[in-house]
Amino acid sequence: MKKPSRAPFYVVIGLLMVVGLTTAWMRHHQMEIPFTPGVQKPVWLIEARIDFDATGEPVTARLGLPDDPPGYRSFIEQAAAPGYGYSVVSENGVRRGEWSKREAVGAQTIYYKTQFIEVDSTGAAPAPFDVPKPVHVDWDGPSQETAAQQVLDTAYAKSSTPQSLARELIKLFNSETLDQNSALLLSAQTEKSILLEKLINQAGIPARPALGLYLEDARRHQSLTRLVQVFNGEQWVLFNPYTGEQGVPENLLLWHTGGESILDVAGGNRSRVSFSMIHQTVPALDLIKAQYKESVFSVLSIQHLPIEEQSMFKLLLLLPIGALVVVFMRIIIGLKTSGTFMPILIAMAFLQTSLVLGVVSFVSVVAIGLVLRTYLSRLNLLLISRIATLVVLVIFIISVLSLVGYQMGLNTGMTITFFPMIIIAWTIERMSILWEEEGPKEVMVQGGGSLLVAILAYTLMQFSLVGHLTFNFPELNLVALALIMLMGQYTGYKLSELRRFRAMVDNANVGKLNDTSKGAD
To answer: Residues of 360-377 as b/e, b for ≥16 C-beta within 10 angstroms?
Structure first.
């Protein structure tokens, strides 16, 4: 009779592994969940402080907020202003934080805190949806207008692109020997960024101001640096008019772009804003919870469950690892155990306490139970009644050991009560029957095998890497399932059986040697 093809089985195994590994990789790539525990990521904590004097009228304070600056991603925003209402509004495409209060008098202080994580970026702002247009420029008098045109003509002749034009203008204004036209313009407008912006707009190239914050650890009372963005036909390119640097430096956070003012206060005067910053490292998993709340993987994540249920799932997701160990030890190694999955439950109990205390508790309960079971066998009780009696006796044994352990200062109560008492009762019953039928040696073999497998499963499950992967990447249990099914098809010799056939192999080798020696004679 032709054997059925195993191709469909291996297809299922392959699909389980591919789905498990692919889903885990997608979760890692999309949500940036690390594959190893304890990963820390650098974070910038930035605090903006707004100070002003309220005049007793209704107060409205608006602060420009960063909106996906290149190289950084904001994941937490907080506002602190007692008695003020707060909301985030959009004005002309610019995010602004708005604080309002019906009446305020005297000095007022408002805090805005945000945390940024560094991300990969090309360093240039994305292209706008609508192509910008240059702004009309007005100069104070014909002399400035003439000087501006001559400076622009000089730089224009040495440039070929909007970027090169901006660089040439910056060189002219930062030269140690200024020409007459550049000196005239700088005497009227000392802010080089404003002057550069006006000249580039006059050349018919869109330019706009940008405010950046240079990040340095543990700095206080810092102010924003005014920069210039030039549109090159595809995207905005940042320039520092004081250094000539092009692009966004690694330590620059682009806080605000566009012609809108950074701070507007109605109902107050002498308003000002300053910044403080600190560099920290935080666990990567904490960042993920705050950043990817809307992700599909986040919605289906166990982290959305209450803490109590998360703790339960953290243990449940370790069960496939224990099952994998049991299957390997029984099918491949050939180790005998008392029951199929009793070692997994014992290993789960060991996870709650130390290994030594768990082993002592388990051995004590089973040993006392076997002694009591010997007495029950003389009463000739029916099986159901005998098992029920064992369950009650196991409860009493656990209670007594818990009280004794408490008096001795040992935390045995939590250890023992976690054991599945019904399973222990059945284990005692099976070992007792095995003792009567096979003798104490077989009881020691199966009992010792169960304990050894439980210890091995506990050793694997208590690794932080295993707990991290099973909890944060539960789809990897599909790979464990595929391995379990794959081992289920194994029909060869177990490793423990090789010792049984060692004598046959030795006899065969001796026979070959004898044949060889006879041939030589």
So the answer is: bbbebbbebbbebbeebe
- Please, are residues 157 and 203 in contact by the beta-carbon 8 Å criterion? no
The contacts of residue 194 (CB under 8 Å, 6+ apart) are 209, 226
Rounded to two decimals, the pTM is: 0.65
Q: What is the pLDDT of residues 39-63, one digit of tens each?
A: 888 889 999 999 999 998 999 999 9
> What span, in angstroms and rounded, lies between the C-alpha atoms of 412 and 400?
10
Quickly state the pLDDT bin for 506 (edges 50, 70, 90).
Answer: low
Count CA within 13 A, CB hemisphere, residue 256.
22
DSSP 406-448: HHTT--HHHHHHTS-HHHHHHHHHHHHHHHHHH-HHHHHHHHH
Q: Give the Cα separation of 255 and 323 in Å (integer).
A: 53
Helices (H) and strands (E) in the chain — how many of each?
Answer: 18, 13
Structure tokens at 396: 């009493």
Where does 242-308 show beta strands of DSSP type E? 252-257, 263-266, 268-283
Taking the C-alpha atoms of residue 319 and residue 477, their distance in angstroms, rounded to an integer, is 9
Residue 405 has a pLDDT of 72
- The pLDDT tens digits for 282-328 are 777 766 765 655 566 665 677 667 767 777 788 888 889 999 999 99
Compute φ and ψ for 95, nearest 5 degrees. Answer: -75, 130
Q: How far apart are CA 156 and CA 152, in angstroms?
A: 6
What is the distance between the alpha carbons of residues 331 and 334, in angstroms, rounded to a whole number?
Answer: 5
**Residue-level length of the chain:** 521
Residues 356 and 485: their CA atoms lie apart, in Å, by 33
